[in-house]
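Make up an example, fold above all:
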Amino acid sequence: YHAPRERLSLPHQVNVTMPTGCQIMGILVGNPYQPGWSRESSEGAPMSLQSKDEYLIPEETRRVARAAFPKGTLCLRIADVLGTIYRDQQFAELFAHRGQPAASPARLALATVLQFVDGLSDRQAAEAVRGRIDWKYALALELTDPGFDHTVLSEFRSRLVSGQAELRLLDTLLERLRALKLLKPRGRQRT
């Protein structure tokens, strides 16, 4: 059954759960079957998806990762020891009020850190998100999550630079390490 393509009554409240688990809430303005329709944020946040404070590792991802890597990997240890490092709200001002749903900036931030640690290109990092169990574990993704296109990482970095937020990744990571007493202050730094 296909819904008739007629004008919706205005406004039309929507609440959709995407396959990746992201929830999109908002108001449809106009007819979504015609050009020019838009979705306005229901909470006024400058992101096109509802931000989350924390992403929990899906049970199946946890079970499969533990079976595949009984001794653990760096990604598993990062997720287990550091927990949620980044929050979507930290990057909210970098995203538009309208438009297609954005990938979770918190997950993109962690993917960027993992990419740097592993020395991967954008394409390789996107493939790791799609195909590596330990990355899915660290990013708290379902095993069936399709990931994202490799261009999303460079677009995210561009948003960080244009929003003068490029140090936010490092500063947040360092704060988390200090809070867990995994990083200790030293008297003198080497350059």
Observations:
- Confidence is low (pLDDT under 50) at residues 1-47.
- The longest helix spans residues 105-118.
- The beta strands are 12-17, 23-29, 38-41.
